[in-house]
């Protein structure tokens, strides 16, 4: 099973679709009703600079955890969103 084109239900009604994936980069379709829509948004793997919540699993993220975050400039509306990197390990095992 490949991870490309997998739809995920995020928090607060966000719809996330993984279009492309590598070890350090994701291309995501992000749809947040009434707020923003990104058809092909590039996200990069990095260490979390702050604590937060995973946009997919609602798990707590601690500073230093491996996450994916939007990498575009200028900062998009969802710039503070994070997805736990381990979400993709779990999908691959399913």
If you had to describe this structure to a student in words, what would you say it looks like?
There is one protein chain. With 94 residues, the protein is mainly β. It contains one helix and eight strands. The protein has one domain. The protein has a six-stranded antiparallel beta sheet with strand order 1-2-3-4-7-8, with helices on one face. A two-stranded antiparallel ribbon has the order 5-6. A hairpin with a 6-residue loop joins strand 5 (52-53) and strand 6. It is globular and about 30 Å long.
Number of distinct beta strands: 8
Could you give the distance between the termini? Answer: 9 Å
Mean pLDDT score: 84
Q: Number of folding domains? A: 1
């Amino acid at each position: 099973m490949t991870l490309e084109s997998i739809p995920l239900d995020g928090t607060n009604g966000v719809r996330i679709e993984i279009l492309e994936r590598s070890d350090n980069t994701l291309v995501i379709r992000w749809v947040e009703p009434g707020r923003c829509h990104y058809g092909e948004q590039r996200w990069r793997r990095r260490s979390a600079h702050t604590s937060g919540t995973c946009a997919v699993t609602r798990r707590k993220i601690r500073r230093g955890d491996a996450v994916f975050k939007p990498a575009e400039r200028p900062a998009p509306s969802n710039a503070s969103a994070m997805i736990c990197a381990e979400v993709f390990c779990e999908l691959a095992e399913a």
